[in-house]
Amino acid sequence: MTLGPTIRKTKYLNNRDLLAEIHRSKCSFSSFTKPEYSTYDIILPNLDKVNQRTLADARRNRAKRIGLQAFTEARLSGDKKVKLAELTPDYKSIPKTDVVIRIMTFEHIPLAPGRKKTTKTTADSHEKINFPPFQHWKLDDETEELVCVGKSHWKGGVEKGTFSKDHGRITENLGKMFIKLSERYAQRSNWRGYTYIDEMKGQAILQLSQIGLQFDESKSENPFAYYTAAVTNSFTRILNLEKKNQNIRDDLLEENGLTPSLTRQNQHEYAEETARQAELYKNMRMPKSEEVDIEEEFEDEETGA
User: Fold this and answer.
1) pTM
2) How far apart (Å, rounded) are the C-alpha atoms in residues 261 and 270?
3) Residues 136, 149 contacting (CB under 8 angstroms)
4) Segment 59-78 mean pLDDT
5) Contact 59/91 with Cβ under 8 angstroms?
6) Kind and range of the H or E element at 151?
7) From CA 257, how far away is CA 259, in angstroms rounded?
8) 102 CB-near residues (< 8 Å, 6+ apart)
9) Using the 8-state DSSP alphabet, how is residue 92 labeled?
């Protein structure tokens, strides 16, 4: 018996591609002194965390990224015998002045007093932006002092530029990923049967386009779970809204003596059957336990004696 060719499972979305498109989209809102400085090697909360240990971690990450990129190019060129370890350079060979550090900060974001009555976080005191702001820093090649080489939400030069939050856009590939994620999620068995599934998909795509870049790479490397949760909330929101509208429509039909929807009829039948079963169980005589029967027989024998 001859078996047919094995069908390889297609991966429609993965975290690596999502992270790459998120990075490209955020870079369109940012300004850098050189294009190569847009790629960071480590994320830190502030400049005080920059030390020998974090620089070593950044050099390891850079070596891993260089090796993975070379490995991917070799595989695409047809070389299937190459190994990742052979193409990954030693992190000690990478100069620390080549490392780019991303610092999560609001220093270059203008203040917006009065935007919120109560400020609970740092973001509440600044202009509202579409993703957490950051700056890129690196060690100077000559003095080895930290210098800023990039800013998010920035237009023009890093030193003489101005704040801007509207000049960028998400990439077309990221938009296609949002559409694909919504369509694939709508094919699940617990959602695909609804007649308003198109409204659910539209709401999910709208929600993803609004919060898509709010994913913070410093806290997680799993954007797929973040986006899936947003899609689930969008689908559930439309479902609850449609249920509310259906209940109002059924109430109006019943008030006018017309037949409501089949869902309302089934609810009435289920409620009546549940009440009948409860009443039957309440009036049913429960059998006595064996212990009670034995005690009664023992009392009868003593009385007869």
Assistant:
1) 0.80
2) 14
3) yes
4) 90
5) yes
6) strand 146-151
7) 7
8) 40, 42, 43, 44, 134, 135, 136, 218
9) G
Using CA atoms, how far apart are residues 18 and 124, in angstroms rounded to an integer?
A: 28
In 3D, which of 137, 134, 133 has the Cα closest to residue 145? Answer: 137
Pairwise CA distance, residues 61 & 45, whole Å: 17
The count of residues in the chain is 305
Q: Answer whether 181's CB lies under 8 Å from 13's CB.
A: yes
Distances (CA, A) of 289 to 10, 280, 294, 296, 303: 62, 21, 9, 11, 22
Pick from 231, 117, 112, 238: nearest CA to 183: 231
The span from the CA of 19 to the CA of 215, in Å, is 9
The two three-digit tokens of residue 300, written as one number? 């009868």
Tokens matching residue 114? 């009065």
Report how far residue 48's alpha carbon sits from residue 247's, in angstroms, rounded to the nearest whole number. 58
* DSSP characters over 95-143: -GGG-EEEEE--TTSPB-TTSSSS--SGGGGB---SS--EEEEEE-TTT
How far apart CA 161 and CA 31 sit, in angstroms, is 9
Give residue-wise pLDDT tens across range 100-117: 999 999 999 999 888 888
* Window from 20-29, 201-210, 286-295 with minimum mean pLDDT: 286-295
Confidence check: pLDDT of 85 > 90:
no
3-state SS class at 31: strand
Instruction: Please count the other Cβ atoms lying within 10 Å of the Cβ belonging to residue 27.
Output: 17
Structure tokens at 51: 């030390």
Whether residue 127 contacts residue 165, with contact meaning beta carbons closer than 8 Å, is answered with yes
